[in-house]
Amino acid sequence: MKNTLVYLASKSPRRAELLAQIGIGFELVDVDVPEVRESAESAEDFVRRLALDKARAGWQASTQQYPVLGADTIVVLNGEILGKPTSAADAEAMLARLSGQKNTVITAIAMVNADKEAIRLSSSQVFFRKITEIECKNYVASGESLDKAGAYAVQGQAAVFIERLEGSYSGVMGLPLFETADLLQEFTIQTI
Q1: I need a labelling partner for 191 at 20 to 30 A (CA). Which of 30, 38, 109, 137 fits?
Q2: Is 182 a catalytic residue?
Q3: Which of 72, 90, 147, 182 is the catalytic position?
């Protein structure tokens, strides 16, 4: 991996893996941003705001030597945002709702430094096959669903539920690499 080029304001190991995948050296900066949707805020505006709030909080918490990358991912089903499940029962209920349906995964990334702020957005369609009740229970019992938006991880065992995906696989994981590279280049950071 290259020398540090950015701070990553995220606790997600998947985002860290994806950033490392494209050869970007980074340091983690710990931020805690409330993820509360404002009334009448669209899903896209909500995820953009959260990514920017995380990047801004990271900028304030860092030594401000490097730009800060923040990100947020949401799952939208029939206009409703499905957050991270609060319990195993909640995860099973979410998966039952996703069964046989198309959901939209929206990931926003934001970068902040002393001079500017910029945001990119990735939106993907994920098509689930029908999931049986026992599959839901077994998947939730694996523990994989409990800290994931929409109660599933495309890169994990839930891949067997997904008929097809239209959009960015890395965006559904939580860090759309095409948009991330574009954003990094805007801040004069080369990926290749």
Answers
A1: 30
A2: no
A3: 72
